[in-house]
Amino acid sequence: MATVALSNVKKSYGDVSIIQGVDLAIQDKEFVVFVGPSGCGKSTLLRMIAGLEDISAGELRIDGAVANDVPPDARGLAMVFQSYALYPHMTVENNMGFALKLAGIPKAERDAKVMGAAKILQLEKLLDRKPGQLSGGQRQRVAIGRAIVRQPKVFLFDEPLSNLDASLRVQMRIEIARLHTELATTMIYVTHDQIEAMTMADRIVVLRAGRIEQVGTPLELYHFPANVFVAGFIGSPKMNLTPVVMKSAGANGATVVAPGGGEIFIPVAPTAVATPGSAATLGLRPEHLTLSDDGPLSGTVAVVEQLGGETLVYVEIGDKILVTVKLAGSGSVHVGDRVKLAVITTEANLFGSDEMAMTPLRRAPVAGKGH
Amino acid sequence: MTKPRTKIVMTFVGWGVAFLIFFPIIWMAITSFKTEIDAVQTPPRLFFTPTLENYTAVGDRVNYFQAVYNSVIESVGSTICCLLLAMPAAYAMSFYPTRKTKDLLMWMLSTKMMPAVGVLVPMYLIFRTTGLLDTKTGIVIIYTLMNLPIVVWMLYSFFREVPKEILEASRMDGAGPGQQLLLLLLPLSLPGVMSTALLSIILSWNEAFWSINLTASNAAPLTQLIASFSSPEGLFWAKLSAASLLAIAPILVFGWLTQRQLVRGLTFGAVK
Ligand SMILES: Nc1ncnc2c1ncn2[C@@H]1O[C@H](COP(=O)(O)OP(=O)(O)OP(=O)(O)O)[C@@H](O)[C@H]1O
Ligand SMILES: [Mg+2]
């Protein structure tokens, strides 16, 4: 059992407010990922949970008990740092056993626990080495092993894979996901790699400038972004965010005018700001656009990226507005072609002038990812 | 073509500078083997019959080994005290800096800019009242205070080379400040700490102002001993040289033996 609850948690350095009131309840055994652009306060928030930073205001509860003033080692959490932060002068074995040694656990018991963690991470052969004699991936595994040995209530990861090369990153990603299932503990994971976020998370917390923009399952965030920021942040290739003008709004949806004059009807519940003539943003995933002879959008193909199984076509519709279209297969589009684009309107998102999403009306809700 | 030539020039310059710096010591060494008559000749004599009479004279007049003992106790003792005080201070300053930490460090260093003679009278009076005059304890205290700013500065810069995540990881693992210092910072910056200690020992060993003014016989270190040769019966160059050479000999040997450590420590982190 390990839950973490933040209520109106704030952090400021002097006059600068970094975390501006975060409310979040993390369930037992949940894998929660914090994402957000650089400097938005992900690490700060994680470090506040860890006890490495003071909490300026608000309340942190671990397993229901207020933990604001509990020292880091007494919180029962373990953290894996981006830089691994291994003790360079100690062997792998001593690195992993350090916490147990400090806690006064007898050597036999310590060795057994270190051995157990080493087995899980295939580190048995490396126990006598120093961190300097390990590869990046091995160091990362030792850092994780050091966390496992303590049998923490919650694992905290701060961009643990960002120093690894692409293939190793994929491998470690799978390994951490496997660990989560095996150990069945709560994990909080910070990254700015949104593929990591999408693939590993039970729930993603999107942060911007010290505030939570949205919390939800990966698919909820993908299909129902709450605002323009989340829409642009989640998904790769990015969602097309096209400026449009509201033409009319009714109970069944809204009609917008796209660049180039094409009109599109989007089945969403218009918000108060969706007055005719006001500016809005149309959010279209690249896979929800198709080439068609009579689409509402038209433009010139600027770039074609052949990825083998799929093709990304960048179409310039209007002045300097590029729209990405994802086509299956290798396609037969060429740079300079005039094309028309059709929109799967039930999948389109519409954001009002306040950048908030209007609720889609004819789209099935995403099923929750149960445990 | 210019590369080898530059190298030759640099080599000559290097040797030249080294010779300039070392010349007084060589000259002193040579003088210590002359008779008092030879020692004051102008132009100086390069060829003379060496004699050991100065050394025996020094040995007769003062208790050399007592002074060596005092020097060792006072320089090593003050260095240990200095490290005990400076390590927690440097730890706090490197890992929990406040807005005033830089100012504090500057202020500590600025105390070194004041000439010691400026506080001689108050120090003397304090020492007299507290009975610390001519005691090893007194000298250890004054040397500790004298070297503390430099030692804190050096340790501060060495500690800052240690990534703070390592200490944070240890905090998560349950290490308190003392354990962080002893189990992590000390081993991780050992070359730096060693060279700081060596420097502190050398500075204390060579200190003359306070030892001359605050000791007489019981606590007199080697520097006091040299000084005692220059005053009472006029100047005896050869004997003074012999005494000086005897005084610096231990630290010279010590410096020679530890030079690798010293250089490594002083350049520690410079290439990282
Ligand atoms: N000790 C500090 N004093 C003042 N400001 C700080 C301090 N530490 C962090 N900040 C500021 O807090 C903000 C959030 O930092 P944080 O490290 O949490 O960002 P992040 O989301 O983890 O970014 P990244 O993805 O680059 O790691 C940044 O703007 C940073 O400049
Ligand atoms: Mg960060």
What does this structure look like?
The complex is a heterodimer of chains A (371) and B (272). Chain A has 371 residues and is α+β, with helices and mostly antiparallel strands. Chain A folds into two domains: 4-229, Rossmann fold (3-Layer(aba) Sandwich), CATH 3.40.50; 237-360, Beta Barrel (OB fold (Dihydrolipoamide Acetyltransferase, E2P)), CATH 2.40.50. Chain A contains eight helices and 22 strands. Chain A has helices at 42-50, 92-102, 107-120, 136-149, 166-183, 194-200, 218-223, 228-233, and strands at 4-13, 16-26, 31-35, 57-62, 65-66, 77-80, 154-158, 186-190, 203-208, 211-216, 240-249, 254-257, 263-266, 268-269, 279-284, 289-291, 297-306, 310-316, 322-328, 338-343, 349-351, 359-360. In chain A, the strands form five sheets. Chain A has a six-stranded mixed beta sheet with strand order 6-7-8-3-9-10, sandwiched between helices. The longest helix of chain A has 18 residues, at 166-183. Chain A is elongated and about 75 Å long. The mean pLDDT of chain A is 92. Chain B has a domain at 64-221 and 249-266: MetI-like (MetI-like fold, Orthogonal Bundle). Chain B has helices at residues 2-32, 36-39, 53-61, 64-95, 101-110, 120-130, 136-159, 164-172, 177-188, 190-206, 209-214, 222-230, 237-266. The model of chain B has no long low-confidence stretch (mean pLDDT 88). Classes of the chains: A alpha+beta (371), B mainly alpha (272). At the A-B interface, β6 and α2 of A face α8 and α9 of B. The structure holds adenosine-5'-triphosphate and magnesium ion. Residues 13, 16, 18, 36, 38-44, 192 of chain A line the site of adenosine-5'-triphosphate (ATP). Adenosine-5'-triphosphate is lined by residues 13, 16, 18, 36, 38-44, 192 of chain A.
